[in-house]
Design a protein that fits this description.
This protein is an alpha/beta fold. It is globular, with a radius of gyration of 28 Å. It has four domains: 127 residues, Tetratricopeptide repeat domain (Serine Threonine Protein Phosphatase 5, Tetratricopeptide repeat, Alpha Horseshoe), CATH 1.25.40.10; 154 residues, Serine Threonine Protein Phosphatase 5, Tetratricopeptide repeat; 142 residues, Rossmann fold (3-Layer(aba) Sandwich); 166 residues, Rossmann fold. It is 52% helix and 8% strand. The strands form two sheets. Strands 3-2-1-4-5-6-7-14 form an eight-stranded parallel beta sheet, with helices on one face. It has a six-stranded parallel beta sheet with strand order 10-9-8-11-12-13, with helices on both faces. Strand 4, helix 22 and strand 5 form a beta-alpha-beta unit.
């Protein structure tokens, strides 16, 4: 047998309703591999669409040393079930036995992408690297010589054979540890392979040789962000700014860290600097960060346009694809997202995806983000007619896949949020491309045709602040999932660490949504309502907790009146939201998914309706379409006055809860099936226009 590890045979099938498969498993357990192979061959003939049967057959062939045949059977298994992590691992084992190191590494890497806890796949991937390195280290490396090793590494790097390049570079660095060029190429290879932890260590080695390399310091910031080492990334960024204080991109990143980490001392000056760069059309500030900095849709568009141009350079769109008439065919709708997992986008969209009319529409999911094996990931994968895990396709290959799939309407649910892939849309793979739900603002891109909104988030007259044509639904643009799990039993105030009497004001948003201005308003409310507390989600860092406690002191509020809620799994988090008497919203980035979550358990939210930016008006839209306009403040002063009034009138708060409970019944906000019908009507109108050869045009969908 191959030295690589299959681990439990990686079949994920112990109990099975396929008799031949069960028999084959038993024969493998008894080490009767010839008999097992014969039986499992019959199983694949009887159940040709069973990924389990093909995978198990391949395992039997491996035990017999028939690795080439095993490769074919494992390939069949992963074609039938692209998310079968065990089959990808077993494919890698068979490829390793044949010495196909690069392909084996890719197979193990895919297995880990699907199942991060797959110990066998992780060990096997490491073994591949060791095996490759062994070919070019030791005596062979001495014989080959540093110059030849460098030439081979460059040749393999330029031909995009990164694993082979990595092996030669490892050998070269062992011979010449101070070779800066070798270490820089080594770092590039690690980045190409998405080996970010290893890249972080390689960066430290490069900086030990060249401590003021500006380019490497920039890369270090990005890599540390990618692996969620935000404190280290922030320190690296400060070092970068010390060395080159005039870097616009570094200044733009600094405001991101100030927001994420709650660095309120530096935030005012950094915010001013970021907004100046927007005025100067520098295109360095992330559009998502702009949503946190201003409630002006005009400023957000001005900052987003050059940002997108900078990041979509060098792309030649695919040739236009004519759109066939709708008569007698299904429309193909593709939903692209990085967030088919435990994430707000999944919480909002799951029921809508399930409710789409499969008689009239083919619904395809394109995942560009991680697989967390959560309930929502599995549920969405089952809901889509086809589901493609495209995270590892490059932008051009991904665009070609969408074109090959014949998508009529490509709906981007990610926009400019984490792991976004706007360059895919820049290739123009679909005739109609739509910005919806995941990002609360304009894409600022000529290659996105429409944005789906409602009359509150994009009021009449604000269309000029969007690069897309505006389509307004007759109801709130945001759907919700009625099947959200709410943890039981619900905790008491005492169990949640809250005082048993007094008003509980709350905002359980992430720290990045809270700014000094909003916090100052909340403290004014606490000062006017005796015995009240402010219930906040515990920041991830000690410095974040210190920021909030210190800010309370600066406002003359006892820091003991700031109560931190620990982080909990989503269902248990929902199960405690009823403990808040009144949520005081953030601004300018108001509550979005969280706003609906509060209302799901009848907890009132008091928000400010922003100037004209999408993100600053979402909570107002939710409340308006629920029929609770009394919870919408028109200014900061109005929010403070309303909050104090409610805080001093417990009967009004109780009446608000009862009203929310009544208004939720039958409201389309919480009815994914009716919501899906609205979206389908929108998609049909978009495609009808494209089929007629007409340019995109905005419209308000009739009720």
């Amino acid at each position: 047998m191959n030295a690589f590890c299959e681990g439990q045979n990686q079949q994920a099938v112990v109990m099975t309703d396929q008799p031949l498969l069960a028999q084959g498993l038993a024969l493998i357990a008894d080490q009767k591999f010839d008999a097992a192979a014969a039986v499992l061959r019959s199983a694949t003939l009887q159940e040709p669409n069973s990924a389990d049967a093909w995978n198990t057959y391949g395992s039997a062939l491996q035990h017999l040393g028939q690795y080439a045949e095993a490769v074919e059977t494992h390939w069949k298994a992963v074609e039938l079930d692209p998310e079968f992590a065990g089959a990808h691992n077993n494919l890698g084992v068979a490829l390793s036995a044949l010495g196909h190191w690069g392909a084996a590494f890719d197979a193990f890497d895919r297995a880990l992408g699907l199942d991060a806890g797959n110990v066998e796949a992780a060990d096997n991937r490491s073994a591949v690297l060791r095996a490759m390195n062994a070919q070019v280290t030791g005596a062979d490396a001495e014989k080959t010589g540093a110059r030849s090793l460098a030439a081979l590494a460059v040749r393999y790097f330029e031909s995009e054979r990164y694993l082979e390049a990595l092996a030669f570079l490892t050998a070269l660095i062992a011979l010449r540890p101070g070779d800066l060029d070798a270490r820089l190429l080594h770092l590039n290879v690690l980045l190409k392979l998405d080996m970010f932890e290893e890249a972080s260590a390689a960066i430290e080695q490069v900086l030990a040789i060249d401590p003021v390399n500006i380019g490497i310091l920039e890369i270090e910031v990005l890599v540390l962000q990618r692996i969620d080492k935000l404190d280290r990334a922030h320190r690296a960024l400060k070092r970068l700014i010390e060395l080159k204080p005039d870097m616009p991109r570094a200044a733009a990143t600094a405001v991101h860290f100030a927001i994420m980490l709650g660095d309120w001392d530096e935030l005012p000056s950094l915010r001013a600097s970021a907004l100046r760069s927007v005025e100067n059309d520098e295109g360095q500030v992330s559009p998502l960060i702009l949503c946190h900095l201003t409630s002006s849709a005009a400023l957000q568009l001005k900052g987003t346009l050059p940002y997108v141009v900078n990041r979509a350079q060098g792309i030649t769109p695919l040739p236009p694809r004519p759109v066939a008439a709708l008569a007698g065919r299904k429309l193909k709708i593709g939903y692209l997202s990085a967030d088919y997992r435990n994430h707000p986008v999944a919480y909002l969209m799951a029921e809508v995806i399930e409710a789409h009319d499969r008689e009239r529409f083919d619904i395809i999911g394109y995942s560009i983000g991680p697989n967390d094996e959560s309930r929502y990931r599995k549920r969405l994968r089952a809901a889509f007619g086809d589901f493609a895990n495209t995270e590892r396709l490059n932008d051009e290959a991904f665009a070609h896949k969408i074109r090959h799939d014949g998508i009529d309407v490509l709906v981007d649910l990610t926009g400019h949020t984490k792991d976004a892939r706007p360059r895919v849309l820049a290739f123009r793979p679909a005739p109609v491309q739509v910005n919806y739900l995941g990002y609360p603002g304009t894409m600022g891109a000529s290659f996105v045709d429409y944005i789906i909104a409602d009359p509150i988030v994009i009021p009449p007259g604000a269309e000029g602040f969007y690069s897309e044509k505006v389509v307004r639904l007759p109801h709130c643009y945001q759907p919700n999932d009625r099947l959200r799990l709410i943890g039981e039993p619900k905790p008491t105030r005492k169990e949640a660490g809250l005082p048993e009497s007094g008003v509980v004001f709350a905002n359980l948003a992430q720290l990045n949504k809270i700014n000094p201005e909003s916090f100052g308003l909340w403290m004014r409310v606490l000062a006017a309502v005796p015995g009240s507390v402010m219930w906040l989600l515990a920041p991830r860092t000690e410095s974040g907790r210190y920021t909030l406690k210190r800010a309370a002191c600066d406002c003359g509020i006892d820091p003991m009146r700031i109560v931190f809620a620990p982080r909990l799994p989503p269902e248990h988090h929902l199960g405690r939201l009823h403990l808040a008497d009144l949520v005081l919203d953030t601004f300018p980035y108001t509550s979005h998914t969280t706003g609906s979550e509060y209302l799901m358990v009848d907890t009132p939210v008091l928000t400010i309706e922003g100037e004209d930016s999408f993100a600053s008006r979402v909570c107002a839209s939710i409340l308006h379409h629920l029929g609770t306009d009394e919870l919408i403040a028109r200014s900061a002063e109005d929010l403070v006055a309303k909050a104090i009034g409610f805080g001093l009138a417990p009967a009004e708060l109780k009446a608000l809860r009862e009203k929310i409970a009544r208004c939720r019944v039958g409201n389309i906000l919480f009815d994914g099936t009716r919501f899906a019908r609205s979206l389908e009507r929108v998609y049909v109108r978009m495609v009808e226009r494209a089929a007629a050869g007409l340019a995109p045009e905005g419209f308000d969908l009739e009720a």
